[in-house]
Amino acid sequence: MTAYTEPPLTMADIESMPDDGNRYELIDGELHVSTSPTFFHQSVLSKVQYRITQYLEQNPIGQVVPGVGIVFDEFNGVIPDLTYVSNERCNDILANGRFTGSPEIVIEILSPGIANEKRDRYIERNLYSSRGAHEYWIVDPETRTSEIQRKRKRAGWRLPFNCK
């Protein structure tokens, strides 16, 4: 008996989906759907963004922006909660209002649920790592912790650094 495998979805498929308040992401042709973020999620995101923006006002080396789509190729398109991109890199990876390469820092605010946590902690982390992100931050509002995973000079991520 042969197993049936559906063809992978493409970014063109995602672009044709309805604007129904859900966040559609595509990783290796597999669809990942999230509902709209909660007030608490957005409150944490605003605070993180504010702190980074304060630093960047004193040190104008780049920009921090929420919810910018990153389209790596026709099978991979994601929408991280926050991204930091340096002034030098921005023009190289920005096209038509979206990133086509990984910003230096990608920040995700965890949403409740095992599927959301698995996507953020493993699936997206591996995608960003393989596409050149220097750091991947996971902020967990429930435990009030942050993990910062930095790219090694060689392949792979270092063990996470936890902040309370």
Write the SSE topology:
Layout: H1 11-15, E1 23-27, E2 30-34, H2 39-58, E3 62-66, E4 70-73, E5 76-78, E6 82-86, H3 87-93, E7 94-95, E8 98-99, E9 105-109, H4 114-130, E10 135-140, E11 145-150, E12 161-163
Parallel strand pairs: 9-10
Antiparallel strand pairs: 1-2, 3-6, 4-5, 6-9, 7-8, 10-11, 11-12
Q: What does this molecule look like?
A:
The protein has 164 residues and is of the alpha+beta class. The chain has a single domain (37-163), classed as tt1808, chain A (Alpha-Beta Complex), CATH 3.90.1570.10. The protein has helices spanning 11-15, 39-58, 87-93, 114-130, and strands at 23-27, 30-34, 62-66, 70-73, 76-78, 82-86, 94-95, 98-99, 105-109, 135-140, 145-150, 161-163. The strands form 4 sheets. Strands 3-6-9-10-11-12 form a 6-stranded mixed sheet, with helices on both faces. The radius of gyration is 16 Å and the shape is globular.
Helix/strand/pairing category: alpha+beta
- The number of strands is 12
CATH topology: tt1808, chain A
Beta fraction of the residues? 25-35%
Distinct helical segment count? 4
- Tell me which CATH architecture applies here: Alpha-Beta Complex
Q: Regarding CATH, which class?
A: Alpha Beta
Shape: globular
Computed over alpha carbons, the radius of gyration is 16 Å
Helicity level, as a percent range? 25-40%
CATH level 4 superfamily: tt1808, chain A
Q: What is the number of domains?
A: 1
Distance between the termini: 52 Å
Question: Tell me about the biggest sheet?
Answer: 6 strands, mixed
